[in-house]
Amino acid sequence: MFQQISFAASVVIVLAGAALALSWAYYLYKDIAQPIADSADDEASKLTSDIRRDSLQALAKKIRNGAFYLFWEQGTAGLWIAAGIVVWLALASSVYTAIAFGWGVAVSAGCGYFSLVVATSVTARTSAKAAKNIDQSYKIALKACCVIGFTVVAINLLAVLVLLLTLYVLQGCELEHYSVDKRACLRRLFHSMVGYALGGGFSALIGKVSGCIFAKAADSAADDGRIQKELPAGSPRNPATVADYVGGMVADLSGMCMDLCSSFSGVMCAALLLSSSHLSTSTGEADLSLQSFALVVPALGLIGSVLASYSQFVLVRVYSKRDVESGLGSIVFVAGIISTGLIWIGGYLTHERTVHFAEGRTTGYNTPFLCVCAGLWSSLVYLWAAEYSSATSNLPVQELLNACRSGPATNIIYGLALGQRSTFLPTFVLALTSFYSLQSLGYYGLALSVLGLLSTLPLRIAVDGFIPVARNAAGLADLAGMGDHPRIRLQALILTHALTPPRVQAVVVGGVASLSLYGAFLADQPKSLQIYQDGVFAGLLLGAMLPYMFSAMLVRTSAQATKGVTTEARDQIRRETGIL
C-alpha cells in the first residue's frame, strides 16, 4: 500500500526547488553583471564610443542613486509605522503574530531593495547591447528580470518555511500528542503566520503607493516641460527626466515585486491555515504532513519555471517586435505545461490515496491537484485573453485603429467598449474556477487554486518587470545620444502588450487571495458569522467605501506632489538658461 511522504521529505523538496531557483538566478546574474567594456561579446561596445559609454554609465548611476534614495526615504517613514504595529500586535494579539509581522515586513522590503539593485545595474548594458541587435538587448533585460523573479519567490518560500518551523518549535506543537490538542496548536500556529502576510502587505502598500505618487508627479512634470517649453519628456534638457525614470523603477518594478509577493504570502498562509482546519489523517488526527502539498506546489512551480526560462534563452531568437511579444507570452505557457506534470507528482507523493476531511467525508487524492490545475490553467486563459485584446496585430486593436479614422469620439467610445468586453472571458473563467474549487474542497480548494495561479509567479514577475527595465534602457540611450538604431530597437521592447496580462492577473491574485484569507477567518466562525447580521452588513458597506476614500486621498496627495515637482522643474528651466 502506498505511504505518503513525510513532512521532512516535503521540506527537502521545498529546499531543493528554492536552491535550484537561486542557483539559476546566480548563473544568470553572473552573465549580465559584467561591465559594458568587459563583455564577452564586445562588438556592441565598439559600436558605442567611449564618451557615450561613459555617459551611459554616469546616467545609469544617477538613476540608481535616485532610486535607492527614494526607496530608503519611504522605508524610513514606513519603519516607524511598522514598529508601532508590531507593539500593538504583541499586546492585542500575540507575540508570535508580532514576530511574523516583523518578519514579513523585513522580507518584503528586502525583496523590493534587491529588485532595484539588479534592475539598475543592467540598464546601461541593455542600452549598449541595443547598438548591435535587438536579441541581445532583449535577453539582457529578460535575464535581469528572471534573476529578480526567481530570487524573490525563492526567498519568500524559504521565509515562510523558516517561520513555520520556528513557530512550530516556539509554540510547542511537537509536544502535543493528542489529536484535539495538536489540531488546536497547529491552528494557533497558522493564525500567527497570518501576521507574515499582513507584514508583506504593509511593505507592499508603502512601497507601491509612495512609488506611484513619486512616479506620477515626475511624469506630469516631464510632460509639463514638453508643453511649456517644447522639451520632450525624455529629453536630457528636461529637469524631470531622471526623476521620471527613478519613479518608474521604484513603482513599476520594486513596488510590483512587493505587491505580488504579499499576495503570494497571503495565499500561502491561507492555504496552510485552511488545511489545518479542513483536513485530517486517516485516523482522524492532525499532523503537520497535511500541510505538505501547500508547501510543495510553489517549489515545483519554481522548478518548472527554471526549465521554461532555460528553453527561452536557448531556443528563442528575437528579430522584431512580434518576436518579443511571442517570446514573453510563450515563456509562461511553457512553464504552465511543465509545472502541471510536476505538481501532479507532488500531489501523488504528499497525499494518501483518500483525502480525509476533519468532519468525516473523503475525496480522491487527485482532487487537490485538480484544484491547483484549475487555477494554473485559468491564469493561462487570463494571459491569452489579455494578449488577444491588447496585441497590436490582433483583430480588436486593428478595429480600434480603424475607428480612429472617424475622429477621437468614436475612438474613445470603441476603446471603452473593447476594454469592457475584454473582462468577460477572464471573469467567466474565474467564476468557474472558484465554483469548482469551493465545491471540491471548500475554501481550502480556493486557496489551492490561487496557489496554482501563482505557481509560475517567477516568470510573471519577470514579464511584468521587463517593461520598466526596457523603458529605462531606452531612456538612457536617448540621454546618451546613441542614435536612431538603438532607440528604435529599445522602443520595440517597450511597445509590447506584455505589460497588460501580469497586471490583470495581479488584480485577480490580490482579490482571490483576500477571499482565501476571508475563508480562513470563516473556518473559525462558520456559524456565528452571517451576512444578514446587522454588524456584518454595516461592516460590508464601510468596507466597500474604504477603497474610494483611500483612492481619493492617494489622488490628492499625487496632485500635491505633482505641483511641487512641476514648480521645481519650471524654476530650474528659468534659472539654468543653458537647459534650453
Give a short synopsis of this structure.
With 580 residues, this protein is mainly α.
Structure commentary:
With 580 residues, the chain is mostly helical. It has one domain. Helix content is 81%, strand content 2%. It has 17 helices and three strands. It has helices at residues 7-32, 43-46, 50-92, 95-129, 134-170, 179-229, 241-278, 292-315, 321-350, 366-390, 395-403, 408-421, 424-453, 457-479, 484-494, 500-524, 534-575, and strands at residues 279-280, 354-357, 362-364. The chain has a three-stranded antiparallel sheet. It is globular. Mean pLDDT is 79; it is low at 38-48 and 497-504.
Layout of secondary structure:
Layout: H1 7-32, H2 43-46, H3 50-92, H4 95-129, H5 134-170, H6 179-229, H7 241-278, E1 279-280, H8 292-315, H9 321-350, E2 354-357, E3 362-364, H10 366-390, H11 395-403, H12 408-421, H13 424-453, H14 457-479, H15 484-494, H16 500-524, H17 534-575
Antiparallel strand pairs: 1-2, 2-3
Helix pairs in contact: 1-5, 1-8, 3-4, 3-6, 3-7, 4-5, 4-6, 4-7, 4-14, 5-6, 5-7, 5-8, 5-14, 6-7, 6-17, 7-13, 7-14, 7-16, 8-9, 9-10, 10-13, 10-16, 11-12, 13-16, 14-15, 14-16
